[in-house]
């Protein structure tokens, strides 16, 4: 419970900043952003996020929030997981589906990990997880792997969903709610 | 051309140390080893290796050699590449084959990257690459993914091959030859 009212969110993405502000500002937490090119480690989701937040807090010398996204295929024991960025870049939407052709289980978790860290302290990690499955791309293909992820209980992919609905079930939203609970506790 | 005769090879593996010594010692280069648990970055093969060697040289304050192994599936645009360790751990030999069921091209490169670095200097990276293909596991399954990699021009997998033959065509051998050429130049 850090009684903190100024936090730097490490992102170069104005949309992400707005989304974080929309949830945290009403609780009296002032969020500004800074774009930093931080090294990303290999490891578990928690390790990758923790080390990024620790590095950012030590560099910026202030409380920081970082965010990571993973896509974890059940049949592949949680992989590509934190490496999904490279697989999306290298294989595209069709390739992500092809990777699963040899597996019966097409289910996957979309995972968002926010990490909060103050300089010299241990990072705290908040994980939001949305169950779903990998499907052939449907909807706009402009935003990462949204077009191939269909959340459980819905007929649309993330890319096809109404944004207001997506924002109440998404892995990012679930993770951010945990951040909010922590910061206002 | 670093006229260096003492190098620390960062490994906890006595077999790897012996292999490196067998090739570099006759050239008058004295190799000792040190086991270090170094962070591994995400990125290209060259980035991953360079940063590991740079970190090790700065920590140990002496010239170092580090080694990384990748397995690059052609159909997957070089992936899993530097992340093969996680895929081998998470999926096993059968899973690596299953990942390729949806792709016609089963070819792959086994890649070994040695990096040499002196404290405060830029790392030099040496890549050895052996072409081959991914096959259902044959031979002893004790050494990483050797049982599913069949080098081009051979009927045996790495795991089935006579060690003396494997050692003259392997990605490690090819990379280490480049290290030798560099160090004795």
UniProtKB/TrEMBL annotation, chains A, B:
The keyword Lipid biosynthesis belongs to this UniProt entry's keyword annotation: no
This protein's UniProt keywords: Cytoplasm, Hydrolase, Magnesium, Manganese, Metal-binding, Nucleotide metabolism, Nucleotide-binding, Nucleus
Gene that encodes it: HAM1
EC code: 3.6.1.66
Localization: Cytoplasm; Nucleus
Species annotation: Geranomyces variabilis
Presence of the UniProt keyword Signal in the record: no
HAMAP family (alphabetical): HAM1_NTPase
Reactions the enzyme catalyzes: ITP + H2O = IMP + diphosphate + H(+); dITP + H2O = dIMP + diphosphate + H(+); XTP + H2O = XMP + diphosphate + H(+)
Protein name: Inosine triphosphate pyrophosphatase
GO cellular component, as recorded: cytoplasm; nucleus
Cofactors named for this entry: Mg(2+); Mn(2+)
Protein role: Pyrophosphatase that hydrolyzes non-canonical purine nucleotides such as inosine triphosphate (ITP), deoxyinosine triphosphate (dITP) or xanthosine 5'-triphosphate (XTP) to their respective monophosphate derivatives. The enzyme does not distinguish between the deoxy- and ribose forms. Probably excludes non-canonical purines from RNA and DNA precursor pools, thus preventing their incorporation into RNA and DNA and avoiding chromosomal lesions.
Binding positions (ITP): 11-16, 52, 68-69, 143-146, 166, 171-172
Gene Ontology molecular-function annotations: dITP diphosphatase activity; ITP diphosphatase activity; metal ion binding; nucleotide binding; XTP diphosphatase activity
Pfam families: Ham1p_like
BP GO annotations: deoxyribonucleoside triphosphate catabolic process; nucleotide metabolic process
Positions annotated to bind Mg(2+): 40, 68
Enzyme class: hydrolase
């Amino acid at each position: 419970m850090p009684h903190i009212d100024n936090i730097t969110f490490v992102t170069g993405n104005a949309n992400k900043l707005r989304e974080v502000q929309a949830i945290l500002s009403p609780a009296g937490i002032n969020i500004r952003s800074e774009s930093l090119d931080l090294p990303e480690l290999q490891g578990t989701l928690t390790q990758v996020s923790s080390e990024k937040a620790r590095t950012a807090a030590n560099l910026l010398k202030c409380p920081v929030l970082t965010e990571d996204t993973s896509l974890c295929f059940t049949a592949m024991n949680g992989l590509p997981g934190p490496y999904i960025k490279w697989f999306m870049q290298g294989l595209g939407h069709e390739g992500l589906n092809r990777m699963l052709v040899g597996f019966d289980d097409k289910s996957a978790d979309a995972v968002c990990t926010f990490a909060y860290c103050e300089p010299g302290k241990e990072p705290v990690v908040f994980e939001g997880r949305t169950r779903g499955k990998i499907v052939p791309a449907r909807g706009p293909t402009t935003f990462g792997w949204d077009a191939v992820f269909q959340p459980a209980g819905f007929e649309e992919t993330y890319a096809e969903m109404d944004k207001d609905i997506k924002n109440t079930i998404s892995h990012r939203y679930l993770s951010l709610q945990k951040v909010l609970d922590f910061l206002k506790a």
